[in-house]
Amino acid sequence: METCLYYPGMGYYTSPRNKIGKKGDYYTSSYVTPVFGVMIARQLEEMWKILGQKKFMVIEYGAGTGFLACDILNSIKCNCKFYDSLEYYIIEKSPVMREIEKSILPEKVCWYNSIDEIPGEISGCVLSNELLDNFSVHQVIMDDELMEIFVDYENNFFEVLKPAGELLKNYLSELGVSLPKSYRTEINLEAISWIKNIADRMKEGFVITIDYGYPSRELYRSYRNRGTLMCYYNHAVGENPFQHIGEQDITAHVNFSALYHEGKKYGLDGCGLTDQADFLSNLGIEEYLEEIKLHDQLSSQKELLLKKILLEDMGRKFKVFIQRKGVVEQELRGLAVQAAKQKTKEIQT
Asked: pTM of this prediction?
C-alpha cells in the first residue's frame, strides 16, 4: 500500500495524475464547495479565543489541492485580529501535491515534510481531512493465532500468511478487541505513531481529525469480517489493490478508538466524536447557506444539492474527532453536546 500510494514519481499521490474531482477518482468536501472551509474556520476561531487570542498555529496534514486551506484563510481574513495572529503550516510529503497547493496559496503558508521541522512550541490546531485512511495498513486474519497477510509475486501477486508480530497483537489487546476465527481486518500502526508525534510536539491546542471510520465496537462488527480496504479508480469502487497499481487510491477505515487511547497516553484528551453533518450543522451551515442565497450568491437548487452532499451523503459517511492538550475542558461549537458525549463514551470501547 505504501509503495502503490507513495513510490517516488510513480505512486498514486506522487504522480501527476488527476486525483480529485470530475476527472479524478473521488470528491472531497472542500473540493465540492468553499462553504466547508468557512465552517472549519468558524471552529478554528472559537479555538483561538479559547487559547487567549494569541499566536495561533494551524498545521494541516496532506492539504491535497489546497482548496481547504484557501477557503479557511479567505474566511479568517474577515477577522483581522485572528488573521494577524495566524500561522498556517502544511505537512505535505508529495512533491506533486505541494506544487499544486503552492499555485493557489501564495501567502501566509509554509510547507514542511514533517511536524518535527516546524520551529518552536506548537500552540493552535492540527487539522487533517481524509488523511488517515490513506496511511498504509497491516492486514491481519485470525487463524489458530493472529496472522499477518504479506504479499509475494510469481507470475502474479499472491498472499502469504505469517504469524503476526507483537506490535499488532498488542494493538488489539490494548483496545480489548478479540477477533473471531477467520476474521480479516486492518491495523493502522502509522495512525497511532502519527497521533503520538503530534502529542509530543504540541504544547497546547486541539487536533481535528476528519475521516471515515468507526470506534472499535463498530469497526469490528461481525459483518465487517473481510475488512474495510477499498480502492477508488475513475469514481468506481473496488476491492482489488493488485490492479491499476499507482493509478488508484487505496484506503482503509480509521479506528477512532485507537486514536483516542493512544492520544490519552501522551496527554491528548478526547473532546468528542460526531458525524460531519452534525458538526457542520452546529457551526451554522444551514443558516450560512440561507444567508448567501439571500444575497444572490447561491441558487435554491445549489443549496439543496450542497445540503444533500454535505449533510447527508458525505455528512453521514465522515466523522469529526477532536482532541485537546493543555486546555481546560469546555464545549466546542462544532460538537453537539449530547451526541458528542455519547460518542466519546463509545470511542473508549
From this structure: 0.93
SS3 of residue 15 by DSSP: coil
Residue spans of beta strands (DSSP E) within the chain = 56-61, 86-91, 109-112, 122-129, 138-142, 146-153, 157-163, 184-187, 202-211, 213-214, 230-233, 236-238, 249-251, 254-255, 269-275, 319-325
Which residue is associated with the grid cell 496532506? 62
Give domain limits for the chain: 2-135+188-220+251-347
β-bridge pairing 86-91 and 157-163: unpaired
CA-CA distance, 128 to 34, in Å (whole number)? 16
What is the DSSP track for 39-74?
A: HHHHHHHHHHHHTTSS-EEEEEE--TTSHHHHHHHH
pLDDT digits (tens, 9 = 90+) for 203-260: 999 999 999 999 999 999 999 999 999 999 988 899 999 999 999 999 999 999 999 9
- In this structure, the chain runs to a length of 349
Q: How far apart are CA 119 and CA 128, in angstroms?
A: 20
CA dist., res. 340 & res. 335, Å (int): 6
Highest CATH level, class, for 2-135+188-220+251-347 = alpha beta
Q: What is the pLDDT of residue 97?
A: 86
Q: Which residues contact 162 (CB under 8 A, 6 or more apart)?
A: 147, 148, 150
